[in-house]
Amino acid sequence: MTGTNAPLRVAMIGYAFMGRAHSQAWHTAPRFFDLARRPETAVLVGRSSASVTEAAHRLGWAEAATDWREVVARDDIDLVDICTPGDTHAEIAIAALEAGKHVLVEKPMANTLAEAESMAAAARAAAAAGVRAMVGFTYRRVPAVRLARELVAEGRIGEVRQVRAQYLQDWLADAEAPLSWRLDKEKAGSGALGDIGAHIVDLTHFITGETVTGVSGTLDTFVNERPVAESFSGLHGSGGTERGPVTVDDAAVFFGRLTGGAPAVFEASRVAWGRKNAMRIEISGSLGSLAFDFEEMNVLHLFDATEESRTAGFRRILVTEPDHPYIEHWWPAGHGLGYEHGFTHQVVDLVTAIADGTQPEPSFDDGLAVQRVLDAVERSAANHSTYTPLGD
């Protein structure tokens, strides 16, 4: 069914941390934004019948199911939202695209470069039939980040000369924090590199309009064994006496070169005490600089080097005005947005693109570009941090 106000019937696979965020977004978006198609939270899919039924009731889904293949094949499903661990992304996404369903998949897009290439190829083939696919890099949809991109595109900081990007968390800083699937390479693909490093790579691509062409990197695991989790909620849980191996990195540090020649330095850590969700990026240009930190997500700092030196300094911009990206649909100026709003904006942009028949961003090709960086970092780290150009 197409056309204005035609429902967009969504099946979501997975319902933990990201599933909760996505659920709220699917419900909230049509209540604050005028969407050409109204999302319907039709089916929630999980492995345990009892658990997924309870989650469907709690999160507002009309139906629960345990077989994602059956759900993907249903004629009454228009879009598949994938919130599962990375080891299942490729299989589910490709099956959904081949079944003619639009797809939203959480980041990183895949666990391996080969999987990401297969997913991108499937998305290109599906696009010829009007089927759309998008990767969930939600930080692109923070109003301050959007404003940063606009200012760079307008030439406000001139030619990009340097990028410094960090994503720091501390939920694994305690050596007794228990194991989760995010610490299992088979399920997660990598640790801090893919989990949060992917975000700052995509943010760099998005804001600068350039991509990383090569890297030199190192990966470190500081705690090689942790308690096996007995319970988990979000990123935190409790462990018992049994212990198991950590098979991913705790921290990733890498240098990159952008297509325009600028150097970029990236750091991702899940063991940085005191940093809860410090995703930061600073871009220095020939005419000024921009700086953003998600722990102050409604603020963007701009330095304009064309101003006279006696009054020059970083300007603190509170990005809550009606003429800032997305803001007119929310609260009065100065009232601020939160973490969940990025997911709502993600739904808005995806539904709008589907209704308009255009390609939503970030596309699977954008996700593939990030995956190529992650793959090159891993190859560099395994080869004494040798500078490693990206493949085509």
SS-based class: alpha/beta
SS strand fraction: 25-35%
Please compute the radius of gyration using only Cα atoms.
21 Å
Question: End-to-end distance, in Å?
Answer: 38 Å
Please state how the strands of the largest beta sheet are arranged side by side.
Answer: 16-15-14-13-7-12-11-8-17
- The coarse silhouette is globular
Largest sheet: 9 strands, mixed
Mean pLDDT: 95
Helix content: 25-40%
Low-confidence stretches: none
Element-by-element helix/strand order: EHEHEHEHEHEHEHHEEEEEEEEEHHE
Count, helices: 10
Number of strands: 17
Q: In words, what does this structure look like?
A:
The chain is of the alpha/beta class and 392 residues long. Helices cover 32% and strands 28% of the residues. It has 10 helices and 17 strands. Helix 1 packs across helix 9, helix 5 (113-127) runs antiparallel to helix 10 (364-381) and helix 8 (192-208) packs across helix 10 (364-381). It is globular and about 65 Å long. It starts with 5 loop residues before the first strand and ends with a strand.
